[in-house]
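Teaching note: in complex prediction, the entire set of molecules is handled at once rather than each chain in isolation. The prompt given to students was simply: 'Predict the structure of this complex.' The entities are:
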Amino acid sequence: MSASITGLLKPWTPRLFLVRWSRYNPYYLEPEPRKEVYHIPETELTPEQKEERELKSVRPIKAATNSVTSSVFNDPVLSKFVNMMMKDGDKIIAKGIITQTLENMKRKQVEKYHKAPEGKKAEIECNPYAIFHQALENCKPVIGLASIQKGGKFYQVPIPLTDNRRRFLAMKWMITECRDNKHRLTLMYEKLSQELLAAFSKEGNVVKRKHELHKMAESNRAYAHYRWW
Amino acid sequence: MEWHQTPGNHALCMRYHSTPAITTSLSSPIKVPPSSCGQEAVGMELETRPETLSIFRTQENDPACQSEQHLGQYYTVPPSHFHTVFPHGLPPRYQQQVKTFNEGCVMVRQPALELISHLKRADYSKPTMRYLLYGVKGSGKTMSLCHTVHYCSTQGWLVLHIPDAHLWVKNCKELLPSSYHASRFDQPIQASNWLRNFRTTNEHFLSKIKLRQRYVWTKRESTEEGRPLGELVDMGVSRVKSSSDVVGAVLKELRLQAGGTEGGFRLAVAVDGVNGLWGRTTLKKEDKSPVAPEELTLVHNLRKMINNDWCGGAVIATLSQTGSLYAPSSAYLPQELLGEEGFDSMDPFVPVPVSLYSEKEFESCYLYYLDRHWLQHPHSRTEEGKKELIFLSNRNPSVLERLCAFL
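The expected output is the structure of the full assembly:
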């Protein structure tokens, strides 16, 4: 009896917290953050673009999230990486770590560049964004494994992966590798920059993990026909 | 926007307007006819750089010869001088930048030039002039101070550079009661570190200056009159316990001998973050009561140095909110940061305001980063990217540096 009364005396909180959901009416349209779209003069618009503009002048538009900017330095892949690094919604810390990582990578490469002899200078890549994108490309698996049940047993079947899934796996492996398998006292940006530079030159643990996945898929190719899609 | 008006440089203005096209190809820096700074011919100056001069660099590496025509241009501190003149005192991010770019380049700016011209024309038989650099956070006060210290060093002055007075009033692990004066406290680690750096900066003076007084350290140790200053400094570095008193003795000797006619040298006292000497400290005595700055030997002796009761030198100081204790972050004016006591002690002084980058200085900084391959993002090299950098940093030097670090 005391249990039921204490249940009634609890302060009311809603069951569903609208934290990440954007529950807009489907009538609302997406915002357009890029500046180039608005600089096209009236005369050069195609008929579809004219139609779109007219539609936008009558329909309501959703509020833009904090992570989209009209800045020229906006990079969607990097934003995704920042979101994956983020813990407890603390984007400031995650963004800070990524900027420190980029700075660290650039510093190492520029130092190497300035100390290198003339002939070798052209081979050293100093752009941290190029290094980041190339490293991520080198970590993306081409083929993945799915656990499919057939006749009571579960088989690891090689399956094709979508682009989003491949990008997600590469980023996830990179982050877990840096969090778990490195020395305890090194800071995250140092670990990330070392791992990214290694992945850029196709060395390092993340690329090794990708190769191991490929080998498993190759060894299980007999089960490929268990896939029905 | 105007660069200097000498006849050869009308071409400069035109070349500047076509910068967007040129900056995309970094291998060909902008070639201009040599400007008329300095008396050297172009041929003999270029020891390591095969290409000719660029807009943002000047070959005039001697601060004494720099003038208004070099405003906004970068000069290189010769690598041989670098470690002797600046063992401490440079901002940490600038030290990282020097390591990355493999060269130490400083921009010639208005406050530093003003200070150097004051130092050139001052009368050193009168009591010391105090110069105070003030400005918003990140506007370049410490770098202007370091530029002036380089000038003093090249002119053969004895430089007393205290990298940050705030380091002496906070985070002190060991606070010993002073043997010389009962109510004061010694800081052995900070004092011995400073003495070591002082020794690196002023090697050649240490054997020339002789002590005028006998100093007794313990019952068995004393330094006699007429011994060279170097011996005193070495003793302070090795005997860490009495290093604070050694610092006090060194300052007193230099004060007495600076204006002397025989073997007289000029003394430059460069203090960064001078507002730390008159605020509060975060140090506590054993009974948990707070320590006032006067009760620290180092601070007490430094305050005597900043007084203008000696002649034959100059005191150049910088205000700093960044390391300061119990000061609001929007405060940057001398009145706010020094407090009443500090302002009264510093009064009269020559205030030198340090402003944010002007358009020309911003251009110069941007071109320098491009030249050193620091701005790597492809969009940062376009006009739009540049406008965005101006907007985001508001031309604040340190904010711009931090932005360009990850771009």
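Point out the following to students. The interface with chain B takes residues 71-73, 99-100, 102-103, 106-107, 110-111, 113-115, 126-130 of chain A (CB under 8 Å). Chain A has a mean pLDDT of 89.
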